Amino acid sequence: IGEDVKPFTPGKAKEIVMSLQQPAVFCNMVGDWPALHWNAKYLSAVLDGKTIQFRLGLKTVDLVPQFETSCSYVKATLEEFLAWSCGHPSCLSGPFSCYEYSKYWAYADYKYIARIFEDKPEIFQDIRWSDFGFPGRSGKESTLWIGSEGANTPCHLDSYGCNLVLQVQGRKRWHLFPPADTSFLYPTRIPYEESSIFSKVNIANPDLKRFPKFRNTTAHVVTLSPGQVLLVPRHWWHYVESIDPITVSINSWIELDADHEARVEEAITRMLVCAIKSAENPSDGDLWLNPTEVEATSHEINLQYLNKAVSAYFERQKASVPEQARPSS
Prior knowledge:
It is built from six helices and 14 strands. The protein is α+β, with helices and mostly antiparallel strands. The protein has two domains: about 10-255, Cupin (Jelly Rolls, Sandwich), CATH 2.60.120; about 260-320, no CATH class. The strands form two sheets. It has an eight-stranded antiparallel beta sheet with strand order 1-12-7-14-5-4-2-3. Strand 9 (about 185-195) and strand 10 form a beta hairpin. It is globular, with a radius of gyration of 22 Å. The protein starts with 9 loop residues before the first helix and ends in a 9-residue tail after the last helix.
């Protein structure tokens, strides 16, 4: 095959993305994308002094995951971030001055490209998801991640869609677990984030006393290098860590039909979290349940109840409305 011939047509690539139930790495699909030049130095020049928020975490690995709620945050320019990561003396003052590079990592994660570059919309065209069969999808529907060595995202699954991730600079190690491993990963909605279900286990240093079932998981470990695109299928758990001094990646979430049901579950979870947060004193759980209620049931069982109730409701509607009077939707 010639250098410029991609291994898959957009149609074939889309078919793989929409149907594959295993993670996969696409090679030689983005060689002509201008976004491959988006290293941190280039982005620093484009952003020209604009500040972005960085999340800072400790490089020491604890038994509990380093959730975003336990991180520090600073606003800084990419120039300041690069100087700090090189150990430049200019960092003795400035936003990173309290954080020693040898002890901390920094991560500008989950940044909507449409928002960062709203004054430079022409840059969106540097990202061409049309090569994967999604015409019209560009940087506008993508997210940017810039990290230093050790930067990581706690293990979680995304409630919606599947995920395409382009690695631009440096390497990232992905630890992926199939949906079937969910119960072994001790899922939790605390901390709450819409569309993210976290694992209580720190994948980098699992506490097997507290989480013995974690031994039953099957990790698929992938080191993603620049120019490669990773497909993370629906509901695959992932823990991601930067293993080079500077990493840059770009991702886009692809909507799936199954997202409609997930939206109902997410809306209810949000409602519950807000109800609990605004409650008087949630620590005294026994006063919450009337004696006629025997016990609190798991989130999973409650959602099964809900799904059955919703299904039964729709079935009833169907039965009671004559065929011709039913709206097409």
